[in-house]
Amino acid sequence: MTENRSIQISNDNKRSPKKFPTVERFLEGWSVYKENLIGKIGLTLLIIFAVMAIASFFTPLIDPMYHPMTGVDPDISHSTSPSWRHWLGTDFIGRDILCQLLAGARIAFMVGISAAFMSIFLGTIIGMIAGYTGKVVDTLLMRLADMIMVMPTLLVVLILSSLFGQLNIWTIVLLIALFRWPGVSRVIRAQTLSLKERPFIEAAKVTGASHFRIIFRHIMPNVLPLSLLYMTFRVTSAIIIEAALAFLGFGDPSTVSWGMMLQWVWKTGHMFQAPYWLLPPGICISLLTLSFYMLGRAMEEVLDPRLRKEIAQE
Amino acid sequence: MESKNKNNHSILRIEGLKKYFPIRRGFLQKIHGWVKAVDGVSFEIEQGKTMGLVGESGCGKTTVARLILKLLESDAGKIIFQGHDIRRFSEKEMKPYRKEIQIIFQDPFGSLNPRMTIGQSIEEGIRILGNKHATNRKERLETLLSMVGMSSDSSDRYPHEFSGGQRQRIGIARALSVEPSLIVCDEPVSALDVSIQAQIINLLKDLQDQLGLSYLFISHDLNVVGYLCNTISVMYKGHIMEFASSEDIFNHPHHPYTISLLSAIPDPDPDIKWHVKPSNGHIGDSDVVPEGCKYQDRCTIAETACLKDKMVFEKVRENHFVRCWKAAKNHGSSPD
Predict the structure, then answer these.
(1) Would the CB atoms of B128 and A17 count as touching at under 8 Å?
(2) Higher pLDDT pick, A252 / B330
(3) Residue B179 at interface with chain A, using a CB cutoff of 8 Å
(4) Domains in chain A and their CATH numbers?
């Protein structure tokens, strides 16, 4: 059944190749992607986590005690091990750990994707401008990138939060983005440098296209796939940094993130007493970052044909 | 359009154009020497005519093209286009002239943006001309496509769906989209099959007749140049070695370099014995420029005088110039 359907799609696709070029390109990429085992595992994990994140919206509706932050089981005032009422047990004041875990997935996605998106946005724009303009602007931007690149993000955020007190989760996201663009901008700059020597850019210049138009109409569509690829890797690093900050006690106290959960385990002295509390957030952090990484690796293969293994012809 | 039909009027005149590239070496990137890519080139293209620029790889042909298009800043000389010296024009001053000079590239694969449809690529020029109405633009796009012999339904497709020859046609349509008066063709047929070459060349000829275009046709293929061009400049190491009408170059070549180039044209007739009169050795590094004639080390008739004296462009007859004192003397001419 499914095989038939996929054949049908590819046939339709061949018949009208010019109707939906974006769809066509997507399907073409997907056919490469789905051959990749790592990519499939990564995507499956990611879907599971996405379902978890969505589920977190519904838990408080079942019973107020399943609210990850404020919901306390009236009968419990200490950490308990898994039971029917609390599948993963409760924390030190009787909050449900599973609910916290689900809410943590939501926060992880939020932090990871928004921080990665912002850093990619900055990195792509700065990289394109540096590569296209060249000369002084290029040197200035790239030296700035070098300076930021050598600063350890975690340390800087730690110092800032000890200076300004508790940081809001969005401030943390912004800081991560501000410190994670240089790597992207270097790659995009290199790509821009090679693109701007291509004849089609010169042709655009000769017809009188503005610099703005050349950068955003001609160069950007050609570097965007690369930016998206880097985004998946940036998500990973953003999630890890946020978790580390939260674990060290510099997270946003009003959010339930996995790092925060680990901090509660540690602070309340349950590190070795309550594995049902310690392990789930730890495993989730590892698996989520792993799945984004796997997604990135598989996408890399789609975008760079040289990395593709020989796929048997149909 | 009326003004374009004025005859015997030069559209582009180049005088003593120079471009030297610095050779930087070492840690401090000190300038070590200069590559004289274009070293005092002068020529003229008449309205509605074609000038061929021939020469082997690395002689500076493409650099000349890029200088004219202002993709590169030239170091000295004059680029007089429609009566204005545009060489030192800023981008703003250049704006009204930008669209007048267009280019067709050698590589049909790199000359179209892979992420834009053919229609988008061509429409860009129409838009820059200031055509605000979408329906007008669409009409213009269809006219352009039919002008270059493409069907209008190809406008929604992407470059990778076309063959080299088709892409070259699209490149021509893109160049025409801004209604230029001069098109620089930088080896437009070198990357194509011979059968397709003929199609493209005939297309260029037809377009010239229809629109009164002028061409600067850069090539290393003398057959193509001879068929298409009214005048020919032979270039060697940044110098124009010989300039004459197409017939004169083919029938009465004077410069030893031109003679050796012409003898290298293969003849398809198997009965004709092929006598190549080779130059000695290879084209050397451009950064080691000898005194005197630039062709001295490969010339078959070079004398000691050639090693020292600077060559001047000498007139051998009306509209025929040669940069070789020996050739000029042999044909009984007076220095220009």
Answers:
(1) no
(2) A252
(3) no
(4) 101-259+277-307 (1.10.3720.10)
Phi and psi at residue B60, to the nearest 5°? 105, 10
Contact A208 B103 (CB under 8 A): no
Q: How many A/B residue pairs have CB atoms within 8 Å? A: 64
DSSP H or E segment with residue A300: helix A275-303
CA distance B191 to chain A (A): 14
In the beta sheet, which residues pair with residue B17? B41
Percent of chain A predicted with pLDDT > 70 = 90
Q: Which residues have CB under 8 Å from B50's CB, separation 6+?
A: B208, B214, B215, B216, B217, B228, B229, B230, B231
Residues 6+ apart with CB under 8 A from B32: B22, B23, B24, B25, B26
Longest alpha-carbon distance in chain A: 77
State the Cα angle at A304 between A303 and A308, rounded to 5°.
110
CA distance A101 to A95: 11
Residue B189 contacts residue B197 (beta carbons within 8 Å): yes
Domains and CATH numbers, chain B: 2-100+180-330 (3.40.50.300), 113-179 (no CATH)
H or E stretch at B46: strand B30-46
pLDDT tens-place string over residues B238-272: 888 889 898 888 888 888 888 888 888 777 777 77
Query: Which residues lie closer than 8 Å to B256 by C-beta, 6 or more apart?
Result: B279, B295, B299, B300, B301, B324, B327
Q: Are A7 and A15 in contact (CB under 8 A)?
A: no
Question: How confident is residue A307, by pLDDT bands cut at 50, 70 and 90?
Answer: low
A interface test, pick of B70, B91, B115, B162 with most A CB neighbours within 10 Å: B115
Q: Is A87 a residue whose pLDDT tops 70?
A: yes
Q: What is the pTM of this model?
A: 0.79
Residue B195 is encoded by which pair of tokens? 């059968």
Q: What is the pLDDT of residues B282-297, one digit of tens each?
A: 665 555 666 777 777 7
Q: d(Cα B264, Cα B262) in Å, to the nearest integer?
A: 5
The dihedral over CA atoms of B224, B226, B230, B232, expressed in degrees to the nearest 10, equals 100
What confidence tens digit (pLDDT) does each residue in A3-17 have?
444 444 444 444 444
